[in-house]
Amino acid sequence: MAKLHERKFVSADPEKCVGCQICEYACSYGKERAFNPIKSRIRVMRENQINNLAVTCRFCETPSCVAACPRGALSQTINGNIILEKENCTGCGWCIEACDYGAMMLHPETKTVYSCDLCKFRSDGPQCVKWCPEEALTVVTSDVLAQKARLSAIKKLFQTPGETRNQQTKET
Amino acid sequence: MKAYAGKILHVDLTSGKSRVENLAEQTVKLYLGGMGLGINLLMDHSKPGRDAFDSENPLIYCTGPLSGTLGLAGNGYSVVSKSPVTGGVGEGQVQGFFGSELKRAGYDAVIIKGKAANLSYLWIDDDNIQICDAQHLKGSSVQNVEQKIRNELGDFYIQVSGIGLSGENLCRFATIISDKYHTISRAGLGAVMGSKNLKAIAVRGTQNVDVADLESFTEFVKNNYQRVKNLETGKYQFSSKSLLELNSLSVLANKNWSSTVFVGAEKFDADYCIGGRYVEKTVGCATCGMNCNRVVAANGVFTDVSLQFDFDCLLSLGFLCGVDCFDAVAKAASLIVTYGMDCISVGAAVAFAMDLYEHGLISLEQTGGVDLRFGNIDAMFDLINKIGKREGWLGNVLAEGVVQAAQTIGGEAVNYACHVKGLELPGYDLRVLKNVALWFSVTFSGDRYLRNKMKMGKFGDVGSSKIEAGVGCVVAHENFLCNVLDSLIVCKSFSGVYTWKDLVDYYLFATGIKFTEEELRQVGERVENLARLFNILEGKGTRVYDDLPYKIKNVHLQVGDQKMVVSDEELQVGLDDYYVACGWTADGIPTSARLKQVGLGALSYISEAAIAAVRAQGED
Q: What is the tens place of the pLDDT at every residue in B479-514?
């Protein structure tokens, strides 16, 4: 059981995320003491106004960023955190290319890569989650995500007849 | 000077050269930023009497002190220029993502002058300024231009602010649009941009934005996030209930200000409410959790509809044109946004044409064979297309705005044009909201888009059935507050959230500059006076221009057993009251003494000359 909940990451609910970028500002403020989305560990994509989603490191089980680094600068701890040994990073960006989520980024000033670390040095946890006004961001494990999906699936299935009828009237 | 970038970018499109000037701290303390800074720069960089479409008329983009920070509802930008519609100050503020990007690129203001040889766009990549060819974007909607420029320059995070076809055609309703649907809607500023052969401004900024007191600032913002979740902003979230309620009170004008209560209003009832079936999603502006932008995608009668929809669109295109079908209103608004026009003005212009047609002032031949009755949906679409493309006689005439159109059409047409200072009215019936009528008549830019929203809550309390002594003071106070909000570029949907004390704190934590409440209020007054002086220089700033349209003043509106009208005497009482509250002369000219008080003593020569001119006129 304990193992199941070891690997946590920040997940955004596409239904709730409005693309307001507050998470980016909160992250750069927490991490860099300045407002600048380009230095944020979480990035928002807004496509056609409707498709908004904040994306950040998923703490993969077999992280491609770690595998991609030819200099062995990246490693993963037991709880999923991606660790960078700065001395070994040349900023070549291979890990950036390898990550399917764009969660690896090159810092404009230090010229080394960085990614989300769940604000591990802060007692109050990830700042993006704390600030999100829509409560779209949560710290989850993949198991919790699966639970949520199942729950919403069965809710749909067992909708009370009244609810269904209401929805139909609304649609017609 | 924290929170400011401290730089002004000058771009000359004729020569293709640009230069950077430092922004003086003194200027910042006088005008804050945004609209106030913009009007100040406009005053410095323009020459009285110069046409709005003259290449030397500056188009000024300004960011506010809060742009680029985590500040709640502060991430906007402001565009100021001489308006081709009113001939005076033209300004507009909009939230979204463009303003913060411009701040990160390192500019508090961008002043664009000259005229490019061919259609171009301006590419601001931090300190790298390029003027790029945009001939392949000719005629494209801003929504497409944004995507094309991002693809072309290969960067998804580029923000684009540009114009559509109507701006290229110098249509008086042209707007400047960013974030696909966020419009600097009034005052025809898109046409000023078009007159410079400038299709768009693309910007990407990478620099930090620092604030003076990070801890207090974030604490302040955080508290306010909690507060906006309360009822204080509720009035902005118009529901169908408030729509019907306002309609029953005859507050909403319909059929070009000719009838009392809109019959089909209940048809909008179920459709226009949050989460209604047309609203695909509500999204937010940068660093604002209120998310009040409804993205509408009609899937009913009309296809290809996607836009951000607003209450005022519904009033102008639905109520004013007598159209009671939400599908049609959404489709019309979508068309208008594609052409890059302003829904409020176009709606008013179409309603104006319909009124003329029904009264036989324009013929079937002149409309191009279209039966332009109120409520004719196809006719509305047809006319919108014609205005957008400047096609046909009527399309071309209306694209010049209702005032010019009324003159061209001649006869009694001028009595049907509802405008203030040349700018078409939004769809509120000023005969019922008399205090608002006074407010509209004295604003320096005709109507000010988001300001209308404020009145719904605030002016209801004052009592709207009569203009009486004391109202002028309220109007003046609200005007000053609006000027401060526009200069800080705080979204006016938040006007119920922030008190003066809040604004003082907000500004202090961001910039480290300490104002008292009175000093901040004085900034608002200073901006009001400065704008007034600009209008006076352009010959549009005196009492005769603070007027209301014929219909509001002369055509009675039957509300219950009352006949409502804002009589001229009533308006004059209001104007007197307002001028006294502002410390202006009876002709609406700021006195030298008052100008000195608000720190504009150096400009008192303008008011002295104006007072002398009025006196000379009186003696003749």
A: 888 899 899 998 877 766 778 888 999 999 999 999
Closest residue, chain B, to A43 (C-alpha): B157
B contacts of A46 (beta carbons < 8 Å): 97, 283
Q: Are residues A152 and A137 in the same domain?
A: no
Which residues of chain B lie closer than 8 angstroms to A48, CB-CB?
Answer: 180, 306
A87 and A18 housed in the same domain: yes
pLDDT at A159 over 50: yes
Residue with tokens 């906006």: B228
Task: Looking at the structure, tell me whether residues A96 and A164 fall in a common domain.
Answer: no
Q: Does A13 touch chain B (CB under 8 A)?
A: no
Rounded to the nearest angstrom, the minimum Cα separation between A156 and chain B is 19
Closest CA of chain B from A100, distance in Å:
17
Minimum CA–CA partner of A25 in chain B: B70
Tell me if A113 sits within 8 A of A106, measured CB to CB.
yes
Q: What total of structural domains would you count in chain A?
A: 2
Cα–Cα–Cα angle for B34, B197, B136, rounded to 5 degrees: 115
Please indicate, yes or no, whether residues A135 and A152 belong to a single structural domain of this protein.
Answer: no
Residue A45 forms contact with B (CB below 8 Å): yes
Q: Which tokens in the block code for residue A154?
A: 């069965």
Same domain (yes/no): A109, A156? no
Q: Smallest Cβ distance to B287: which of A21, A32, A171?
A: A21
B69, B289, B295: residue with CB nearest A49: B295
**Which residues of chain B make contact with A134, given a CB cutoff of 8 A?**
284, 289, 291
Range of the structural domain that residue A167 is part of: 142-172
pLDDT tens digits for range B539-575:
888 888 998 999 888 888 887 777 888 888 889 988 9
Q: Mapped to the 3 state alphabet, what secondary structure does B377-440 carry?
A: HHHHHHHHHHHHHCCHHHHHHHCCCHHHHHHHHCHHHHHHCCEECCEECCCECCCCCHHHHHHH
Which residues have a Cβ under 8 Å from the Cβ of B104 and sit 6 or more positions away?
A: A36, A38, B68, B205, B206, B207, B208, B209
| Nearest-neighbour CA in chain A from B284: distance (Å) | 5
Q: With contacts defined as CB-CB under 8 Å, which chain A residues touch B280?
A: 50
Let me know: does B235 contact B94? Beta carbons within 8 Å.
Answer: no
- Residue B461 CB partners (closer than 8 Å, separation 6+): none
My answer on whether A61 and A13 are in the same domain is yes
Could you tell me the pTM of the whole model? 0.91
Calculate how close chain B gets to A132, using CA atoms only, in Å.
8
> Are B70 and A35 a contacting pair at CB < 8 A?
yes
Per CB-CB distance under 8 Å, the chain A contacts of B225 are: 131, 133
Contact list, A36 vs chain B (CB under 8 Å): 104, 206-209
Kindly state whether residues A135 and A146 are assigned to the same domain.
Answer: no
d(CA A99, CA B421): 57
Residue A105 maps to which CATH number?
3.30.70.20
**Chain-centre distance of CA B11, in angstroms?**
24
- Among residues B334, B390, B387, the alpha carbon closest in space to that of B143 is found at B334
Closest CA to B262 of B334, B197, B351: B351
Q: What mean pLDDT do residues B352-371 have?
A: 91
Chain A / chain B CB contacts < 8 angstroms: 81
Q: How confident is the model at residue A166 (pLDDT cuts 50, 70, 90)?
A: very low
ipTM of the complex: 0.87
Is the domain of A169 the same as that of A122? no
